Amino acid sequence: MSNSYAIAAVTATLSKMINDGLNDGDFKDKLPDSLKPTGDIGVTTLTLDKAHDENLDKDRINLFLYQVAFNAAWRNRDMPGQVKSGETGQPPLALNLYYLITAYGEDDKYGSQLLLGRAMQVLHENPILKGNEIEAVLKESELQNQVEKVRITPLPQSLDDISKLWTTLQTQYRVSAAYQVEVVLIESKSPIKAPLPVLTLRPIDKDKGMLSDKGILSQADLIPPFPELTDLVLIKEADNIWTEITKKYSAELGDILSLRGHHLKDATVKEVRFSNPHLKDPISMDPESVTDSEIKVKISDEPHRWVAGIYTLEVVMSRAGEPDQTTNELPIALAPQIETNLPIDVVLSSGNTVITLDCSPQVLPEQRAVLLLGDNEIPAEAHPDKVNQLKFNVKSANPGEYFVRLRIDGVDSLLVKDFLAVPLEFDSERMVKISK
Fold first, then answer.
1. What region, left, alpha or beta, does residue 163 occupy, with left being phi > 0 and alpha being psi -120 to 50 degrees?
2. How far apart are CA 406 and CA 390, in angstroms?
């Protein structure tokens, strides 16, 4: 945990980082002779009025800490690993630091702008202060050991903010960039109060709600005594052995799901219900098998019943003489499938072409359908009815071979043919070749 040297450690580390970037040969050597500084470019940490007087005719970057504020997220939070449950301690002093970077150049036409651009580039490429950088500058601060990383974030300022800041500092305005550095956690020196652990709980009469001598009431575990779904995985059977397909991130028509949970045989499993915002009624599937901890269910290979997209899944359970009840819901993505035999060849005409793909399940007019051609997104032509074929106008295309994916309501068709292979590989046939 850092100490009271931490603020100075941040300033010193930023200064060294910017100084190293300004005096890097790759930066200075590329400058035209008319703009090359006569000596090393320095970094100062002065107030703006003093920086203006000292640096006016020098190639310099001034790093000015103009505000220190409390970090609201950490202000009342105990330090992880130091204060345990039941103990009390003083939260760390959590601070956000605000810096203003101002450039001064001998050639005031371009020089200061070149320096400011380089300083901003250095901070952009190093958004987190590394532990070894802090340790090299001010090891005694122990800032390099704090649990939270110190992050550098650009701070947009309106014209009104800029005007107020420079008016308050009573000096001539120069183009500057503001940054927020967070968070600096300064450890409190107040000791933690850590009482001895409790060995015996006070017994309570569950019926009367009062202390009793009947002993401690307890239950065997913390698992709720009602049916609950906790996990969902895709599975595949081969030679009477079920294998989890953990790397397959979306289901497809015909896939088998394993719904994991507990108390799943406390009532009769009536159906597994799939709901999608585009479907008026949920789709019901009968379970393949049911145990107390697992329900297997198959997504029927019936394209006319389904649409691609995100579903919520729940299990409907019934008991004699009671209304049906449902479990909690789990999300599942159903991927579209390209039914056109791939790969396909298309020819450009004046730089444009049309790609037509058959797909499953059918796509509704209100669904968002796009083709991902390599890394380019191409929207589908509008269609007034539910269709299983989509057309995509590809404009200004470059000849070449591209992997293709169909994205329906944010769910992509799968590019991997075998999710059990090691390592995973893209299916080389799921491509489109564009030629002139």
1. alpha
2. 10
Enumerate the β-bridge partners of residue 179: 99, 154
- The CA-CA-CA angle for residues 296, 287, 338, to 5°, reads 70
Q: Are residues 168 and 232 in the same domain?
A: no
Give the CA angle between residues 66, 71, 74 to the nearest 5°. 155
Q: Which of 97, 100, 26 is nearest to 61 (CA)?
A: 100
**Exposure string over 313-336, b if 16+ CB within 10 A, otherwise e:** bbbbbeeeeeeeeebeebebbbbb
Query: CA-CA distance, 431 to 401, in Å (whole number)?
Result: 7
pLDDT tens, residue by residue, 132-168: 999 999 989 889 888 889 999 999 988 888 888 888 8
Which pair of structure tokens corresponds to residue 188?
Answer: 């409190």
Q: How many CB atoms lie within 10 A of CB 154?
A: 13
The residue range of the domain holding 290 is 228-334
Task: Tell me which residue of 60, 64, 66, 63 sits closest to 103, measured CA to CA.
Answer: 60
Cα torsion angle, 347, 349, 351, 355, sign: negative
207: in domain = no
Question: In this structure, are 383 and 412 located in the same domain?
Answer: yes
Q: What is the largest distance, in Å, between two alpha-carbon atoms of the chain? A: 93
- Would 215 be classed as within a structural domain? no
From the list 300, 419, 303, 432, the residue with the least C-alpha distance to 356 is: 432
Q: Can you list the residues of the chain whose pLDDT is less than 70? A: 1, 29, 31-40, 54-57, 79-88, 106-110, 191-221
Mean pLDDT of the chain: 85
149 contact partners, CB below 8 Å, separation of at least 6: 128, 129
| Distance separating alpha carbons of residues 286 and 296, to the nearest angstrom | 9
**How many Cβ atoms sit within 10 Å of the Cβ of residue 431?**
19
Q: Are 154 and 177 in contact (CB under 8 A)?
A: yes
Task: Tell whether 218 is covered by a domain.
Answer: no
Where would I find the H helices in 23-77? 25-28, 48-55, 72-75
In this structure, what token pair is assigned to residue 59? 């190639």
